[in-house]
Amino acid sequence: MIRTASGAERGPLGRPVTVSLVIASLDEGAELHETLRSLFAGSDVADETIVVDDGGTDGSCAALETEEWRARGVVVHRIPRGGVAAARNAGARLARGTHLVFLDAHCRLERDCLGRLRAALATGPDAVLAPALRDFGATELGCGARLVDADLRVRWLPPGPDGAPYPVPIAPGGCLAVRRAVFEGLGGFGAFRELGLEDVDFSLRAWRAGIDVLAVPSARLEHRFRAYPPYRLNSASRAYNVARLALVHFDGSRREECLRKVIGTPRAAEVLVEAFTGDWEAQRGVVTATSVRSAEAFFERFGDWR
C-alpha cells in the first residue's frame, strides 16, 4: 500500500482507493444525523456519502439537503419504499468510488474505523470485509457471523486478534465493504423483502464465487441493535426471504428444513406460493454458473447448524 500526495490510499496496482459510503435510511430520525456526525468526526472520511431515503416520511433525509451537508459530499437520493437491499443497490448505482461501504443509519463509527477499512480494501485481495460491531453501550464485540439454524438466524463470532484480515462465513449488513467491481460482478444484493437475509445471501454468493468474506477486527463501530425498527414490517417478509434463500442456495434435506420453518409462520401458504412462482430458478442458475464452491462446502468450512 502507498499513499498519494493528497494522502489517499493506493491499491496494489497503484490505483487510488476511493470510497463511496452508502446509507439506506427509513424514518431513522436523529439516528441518521448522529451516524453521519460520527462518520465526519473520524480520521478518514468517505470520498462521497450517499443517503438513500427508502420511502421515508419523517423528514430526516430532507434535513440533509443543505449546503452544510452538500459541502461534505452528502447526496440524498429518494426511492419508493423497496427494502434495504433495493435501497443499497440504488445507492451503489449512483456511487463513483472504486470501493463501497454499506452502513446502517443507526451506527457510531470509532475515529479510525473507516481508515482501517480503507487500508484493508487497498492492501487485501478482492473480498467482502466485515468490521467489528458492538451494541450501543456494550463492550463485547462481534466480527462476522455464522448460521445457527434452519430459520437462518445468525450468531456473532468473537473477533480474533488485530492484524491481517481472516475468513468468516458472513459479513452482516450493518456494515460491510467491498470493491465496486466485485459488488457489480455479484449482481448486488438479491431481491429480498424489507430487511433480513440479504447480507447472508450476498456473503454466500461471494464465497461460492471464490470471493472470501474477511473480518477486519481493528475497524470498530457501535450499532444500535433493536427488537423493532421505527417503521412497520410486513409479517410475512422474513419468511419469504427464508424461502427464497433456501431455494436459491440449498438442496435436499437442508432446503426442506428451511421450508418447514416457513410453514409455521403467518400467511405461510401465500409466502410459499410467491416464493415458488418467483424467479428463484433463474437466480439459482446464475449462482450455479458462477460458483467455484458449493453451499455444502460452505458449511463444511465454517460449521453446520445440524
Overview of this protein structure:
A hairpin with a 6-residue loop joins strand 9 (145-147) and strand 10. The radius of gyration is 19 Å and the shape is globular. Helix 7 (237-249) runs antiparallel to helix 8 and helix 7 (237-249) packs parallel to helix 9 (268-276). It has helices spanning 30-40, 67-70, 84-94, 113-123, 180-185, 198-208, 237-249, 252-263, 268-276, 280-290, 295-302; strands at 2-3, 9-10, 19-25, 48-54, 74-79, 99-104, 107-109, 127-135, 145-147, 154-156, 166-167, 175-179, 212-223. It has 306 residues and is α/β, with parallel strands linked by helices. Residues 1-7 have low confidence and may be disordered.
What's the number of extended β-strand segments? Answer: 13
Largest sheet report: 9 strands, mixed
Low-confidence stretches: 1-7
- Helix content range of the residues, please? 25-40%
Features:
306 residues; 9-stranded mixed beta sheet; alpha/beta; two-stranded antiparallel sheet; globular; 22% strand; disordered N terminus
What's this model, at a glance?
This protein is of the alpha/beta class.
List the helices and strands and how they pair.
Elements: E1 2-3, E2 9-10, E3 19-25, H1 30-40, E4 48-54, H2 67-70, E5 74-79, H3 84-94, E6 99-104, E7 107-109, H4 113-123, E8 127-135, E9 145-147, E10 154-156, E11 166-167, E12 175-179, H5 180-185, H6 198-208, E13 212-223, H7 237-249, H8 252-263, H9 268-276, H10 280-290, H11 295-302
Parallel strand pairs: 3-4, 3-6, 4-5, 8-13
Antiparallel strand pairs: 1-2, 6-12, 7-13, 8-12, 9-10, 11-13
